[in-house]
Amino acid sequence: MRLTVNGTEHEVDVEPDMPLLWVLRDELNITGPKYGCGIAQCGACTVHVDGFAVRSCQLAIGDLVGEVTTIEGLGTPDNLHAVQQAWIEHQVAQCGYCQSGQIMQAADLLAANPQPSDADIDAVMGGNLCRCGTYPRIRAAIHSAAARLQEA
Amino acid sequence: MASLGKIARRTFLIGSAAVAGGVAFGVYAARQPFPNPNLDDLGDGAVSFNPWVVIDNERVTLVAPHADKGQGIFSAQAALIAEELDIDLDQVEISFGEPDRAYFNTAITEAAAGFPMYDMSPTAERVRGFLGGVAKLAFPMMATGGSSAIPDVYDKLRQAGATARETLKLAASQESGVPVAELRTERGAVILPDGTEMPYTALAATAARIEPVMGVVLRDPADWRLAGRPMERVDIVRKSTGTLTYGIDFRTEDMRFATIKVNPRQGGALNGYDATEAEAMPGVERTVEITGGVAVVANNTWRAFRAANAIQFDWGDAPYPAEQEAHWDHLAGIFDDEHLNAEARVEGDVDAAEGEEISGEYRSPYIAHAPLEPLNATVLVTDTRVDIWTGHQIQMFAEQIVSEITGVDQENVHLHNHFIGGSFGHRLEFEFIRQAAEIANQMRGVPIQMTYSREEDFAHDFPRHITMGRGVAKVLNGQVNSLDVQIAGQSVMRSQMGRMGFNLPGPDTQLHEGAWDAPMFNLPNLRVRSYRTEALAPVSSWRAVGAGPNVFIYETLLDEAIHAAGADPLEERIRLMGHDVSVGVLEAVGEMCGWSGPNIGEGRGRGVAYGFSFGVAVATIVEVTHTDAGIRLDHVWMAADVGQVIDPVNLENLAQGGVVFGLGHAINCEITYSDGMAQQTNYHAHEGMRIWQCPPIEFRALETNPKIRGFGEPPIPPSAPALGNAIFAATGQRIREMPFNKHIDFV
Q: Are B79 and B155 within one domain?
């Protein structure tokens, strides 16, 4: 089975019902997307497929159509995405385990809605659980990223 | 000094150690430092001045041994060393180090001394010092917990940095001939008067031949350049780019992925199982029997999860009541002399006190830890060495357990600590370490990464202990005149320490923590009694431990009394408080929100609560509106006094997160048992707070506390009662049971 992740094509030998998350983590060693719940309740596994945020724990590899981008492909420490810059500026992370998913979801939100209100943020980010409780900083960072992207 | 017998009675955490170890060893031995573990395999030309600073000709390494589960202690430890070492954090490598008793926690026993943590009397301080020494000799525990990391490292890491700096200056003086007094240090180099820079790395070889300079006077915090102001956490870029390796992300050659199934009736037997179908599933290498259950070893975690679900099990009964209602019934029946844990506080005479009587019964349920990174550990066992890659808060004890399982000497068991994706007390436990080691021990030479499914993590969490409170208040002449508080609960310390093999003598102070030590010295009549059982489900420390349920009980009863007295909830708390630091946080939070009383309009209300835990006074005010869709959280204000702020940004993050954590669980979380099993299997049934429920949270840090304190846990206790008291102000409905959504709807 073939798939493209962060611009690189991979061939994997797995059953078609294996969720994308586990292809990424255990077959390709791409560990930015996290396992948190396995039932689309936490959002830690969020990646982009053709630019749209999806829960990779719920997408069977056999049903994958499109190119996959993970947090590692969104930006790197030397070449940060605007959302990642904002996350660093606001020191959002505590344990950080949910933040890959939060950032991927936020990037999708800003692509669709460049100037989201707090209510827009709450509606779109409501599926991403943060057990440490960084929500006030997530809101602030999304507004900063929106401003940064507007300037760009 | 207090007699040893008195100390023994006051002690719970290391009680037997205090009796057995104390006098025999004496204070002198207790104060001797452990050998520096970095000296064991130090290369030529490298120098280690103490357990926390290692310099060779290429790099400066700071050792930050406390476990980081999100609280930011990794950065804080490095900053405290670097502050005195005169080096910046972009110039150093920072390591968790090798677990070693040299890193034992000197502050974690403080709460066990039996004195309220605001008591700075010479007697209290002597007993704390004595206990710290005894703990070192009898049970030197390298541990991160109890909000003790900052108090533990505050002096010793700055001293480590200062010692290294002065020794490097001495080395520079020897090499250059310039007197030490004319040298200064900056950005990792000694600077000569002519501006010549001698990098620390170039001075390592000379410094290695010098006795470290001891007893250096530490700088005044007013002169700090790194600490005390906003810092960029050293893990923040990695945590924002998916490049940080948590234990679950560890990968090594030929690694197998495994998972386990253990009797969901915790502690129940494995009577039998049939793994035939599981073993035939794709990618499954084999199944392995472990204590109380079965592991599946596969080539992918998801395949292991699937196969584990295909095993047929015959599980034994739970060693505790099968149905939840029986747990509550049991607690209701232990408010008696036979179960008395402690009469922890008696002021005046609550029975003789006059006034109108108000009474209530309060319930705090079991709650899961459920950090987002599920429990996992990777273990490789060979005949001569074991490696463990995981995140743990009591590293050496984990090594000891694995040594016992594998028969490999503990000195050849190496735990490589990792950043932890949340804990809240979860990573103080050892079952997952045992299980991974049992699998790996049966497959020697093969690295095994064992990961819990989220369902297994819920089923096998040792949750927050269940608590029931009963209170009687009396009000007289518009004031609160008396509080009589009784708290009955499953003993968290006996349950948790029992799993570590310790049989604790004496009372479990966690069953009255946060209630017995509320410094309301102007309350003429106060009695706090706690009652203890061990007949219920196994439980463990959950962020803030006893203070969580106990402050909810105490502060809700107090709020009911204040309302009955017709007094103002904030003013009356300030009047009752005989403790300047606590008055300070109450006044601050009132000022922050422009306090004008609890009732601020139709369907709107504000609730106040105060909590004293882990040495920190915290005051919280929550504002809510009762809408057609339910209770909406509008705003939260919090003031707290930690003595000295290391990083104001991180502190604010912990405060906001603590409010979210405390409120979220109060609103909608509980673990209930049926047929002996937890009924909540994943986050849909134990959700916590989502972003759309999260109000603006404003925080102010005060710095008048005479001792520096940790802040991982103190934000939690006052959150729930502040919300309950706000709901009362808005609706007139008094909620005495968590989670609140059993009694009222939330937006």
A: yes
Bigger pLDDT: B285 vs B504: B285
What ipTM was estimated for this complex? 0.98
Q: How many domains does chain A have?
A: 2
End-to-end Cα, chain A, rounded Å: 38
* Same domain, yes or no: A105 and A59: no
Give the CATH number, domain containing residue B511.
3.30.365.10
DSSP secondary structure letters along B302-327: HHHHHHHHT-EEEE---SS-SSHHHH
Per the document, the length of chain B is 747
Taking contacts as CB-CB distances below 8 angstroms, the residues of chain B near A95 are 69-70, 371-373, 419-423
Percent of chain B's residues with pLDDT above 90: 85
More confident residue, B126 or B522: B522
Domain extent at residue B396: 247-318+375-451
Collect all residues with Cβ–Cβ distance below 8 Å to B618 and sequence separation of at least 6.
Answer: B585, B610, B611, B612, B638, B639, B640, B714, B715, B717, B718
Distance from CA of A129 to the nearest CA of B (A): 6
Q: Do A97 and B282 touch (CB under 8 A)?
A: no
* Final residue of a structural domain among A74, A109, A132: A74
pTM: 0.95
CB contact under 8 A, A38 and B233: no
Q: Please calculate the CA angle B199-B205-B211 and round it to the nearest 5 degrees.
A: 105
Which residues form the domain of A20?
A: 2-74
Looking at the structure, tell me whether residues A86 and A70 fall in a common domain: no
Contact A133 B372 (CB under 8 A): no
Q: Are residues A10 and A59 in the same domain?
A: yes
Q: Rounded CA gap, B5 and B25, in Å? A: 17
Q: What is the mean pLDDT of residues B15-43?
A: 49
Task: Give me the residues paired with residue B637 across strands.
Answer: B621, B698
CA-CA-CA-CA torsion sign (B119, B125, B130, B134): positive
Is there a contact between B84 and B158 (Cβ–Cβ < 8 Å)?
yes
Where on the phi/psi map is residue B31: left (φ > 0), alpha (ψ -120 to 50), or beta? alpha
Secondary structure in 3-state letters for B560-599: HHHHHHCCCHHHHHHHHCCCHHHHHHHHHHHHHHCCCCCE
For residue A83, give the chain B residue with the closest CA.
B240
**How big is the A-B interface in CB pairs under 8 Å?**
186
Burial class (CB in 10 A: 0-12, 13-18, 19+), B239: buried
What pLDDT was estimated at residue B32?
A: 58
Q: How far apart are CA B80 and CA B82, in angstroms?
A: 6
